[in-house]
Amino acid sequence: MTQYIIRGGKPLNGTVTISGAKNAAVAILPATLLVNGTCRIENVPDISDVHLLLEILDRMGAEIRRLSPNTLEISCVHVRDSEASDTLVRRIRASYYLIGAQLGRFGHARVALPGGCNFGARPIDQHIKGFEAIGADVTLSNGFVCATAPEEGLTGGRVNLDVVSVGATMNIMIGAVLANGTTIIENAAKEPHIVDLANFLNAMGAKVSGAGTDTIKVRGVRSLHGGSYSIIPDQIEAGTYMAAVAAVGGNVLIQNVIPKHMDCISAKLREMGAKVTEYDDAIRVQRTGILRRANVKTLPYPGFPTDMQPQIAVCMSLASGVSVITESIYDTRFGYCAELNRMGAAIKVETKVAVITGVEQLHGCTVHACDLRAGAAMVIAGLAADGTTVVEEIEYIERGYENIISKLEGLGASIKRVETPSRRSVHAAG
Ligand code: UD1
Fold it and tell me: Do residues 130 and 147 both lie within one domain?
């Protein structure tokens, strides 16, 4: 069992550099299956979700060379027409991009239904609607998604998404890139990683336009060629460090960010009393005085991201007055509130609404990370709390945060990663 041990109460000061965007990387890596050449990809985050996808591609026959911790060369030219390992696929939500990628490359895909963080039902009906719009026959059976193109191949189509879905928007883009004719995705999601995927595909010869608006046009091309691409900085990692400074106090320069992507988070932290200064590719966050209450409603981009909801809840737990969070993307994403309450927070959850009464101090105790972003929130809470906080199930956190320990230590935090015998092996030894 691996844990983080945090001795809280020390303000954060210094400079931290943000890694490449996880949610862009986990779509771009499967999309390399479509490329008839070598892709050199820079700013790839060194996180376990990426390791898992690389292992899946490796087992399928991809040639992968790591040129530096964050630069990869991937050639899928000799990838076999084979299934992705279902045990690996089930461990990561983003493996759903393998459906679009295999369908586009081989004309058929059979991929285990994806796993990932559990925020309640996470259907993929909109992905399927998109694949059907470009001519695929899609069935679900025995925990697998099977998609098959007609004999004449996939053809461009028009799909109007019933819900704004990041995953469906990107998956349909991936599936449509090599189709005959033009695909139009309406009511598309607009997150920065959607634009990043489009830019990656275009760098390899695709013709995708409109990414970042709610209508995306994919003009099918015959093939994609190799090339170089650098992934954008991670909006949510940057936002997590911003929230950490706001909650804990201090003065931190957060480098390698695109400040425009942070607008909604910067505005909320300013409203709560933090000082946020934007530079060309960096943001400075300072917080010395008390935090003020605020309300947040999670929304698709450019609204407040659901992936920043647990982190801002920690800030609200330490703000004066009563704050309200309304979660509008997922049915259940407040599981972590019980953990924060064990640290002294005062949060009442009513289905999709959390009412947070600010307290003066959080107190260290043993908590667990119930998912990736909830885990990040536990770390922030531990840094702000008095005493010692032990965060368990940190594997979730390491799915999405590169070098979180050394980055926080660089800001003056006291945080250690320790391996302890698992409870099971303690019993076994006993
Ligand atoms: C992605 C991100 C996740 C983030 C989320 C919202 C990845 C790997 N994960 O998840 O970190 O929290 O976007 O920004 O990029 N929906 C349907 N049918 C579908 C697809 C989605 O009803 O076919 C619903 C979902 O249940 C949810 C909403 O649409 O209520 C948004 O989900 P979506 O944007 O697709 O999220 P993910 O791609 O799963």
Answer: yes
Q: Return the sign of the alpha-carbon dihedral for residues 305, 311, 314, 318.
A: negative
For 56-69, write each residue's pLDDT tens digit.
999 999 999 999 99
pLDDT at position 128 over 90: yes
How confident is residue 280, by pLDDT bands cut at 50, 70 and 90? Answer: very high
Q: Note the pLDDT tens digit of each residue in 192-210.
A: 999 999 999 999 999 999 9
Mean pLDDT of 320-336: 94
Checking DSSP bridges between strand 144-148 and strand 137-141, what pairing results, if any? Answer: antiparallel
Which atom of ligand 1 is nearest to 163's Cα?
29
- The token duo for 294 is 């605020």
Q: Are both 161 and 290 inside the same structural domain?
A: no
Report the separation in Å between the CA atom of 6 and the middle of ligand 1, taken as the mean of its atom positions.
32
Do residues 189 and 301 make contact, with C-beta atoms less than 8 angstroms apart? yes
3-state secondary structure 373-421: HHHHHHHHHHHHCECEEEEECCHHHHCCCCCHHHHHHCCCCEEEEEECC
What domain range is 289 assigned to?
2-19+233-429
Please check whether residues 148 and 201 belong to one and the same domain.
yes
Most ligand 1 atoms within 8 A of CB, residue of 163, 231, 304 to mutate:
163
Mean pLDDT of 131-145: 92
Residues 204 and 151 in one domain: yes
Judge if 220 and 237 occupy the same domain.
no
Pairing of strands 12-17, 250-255: parallel
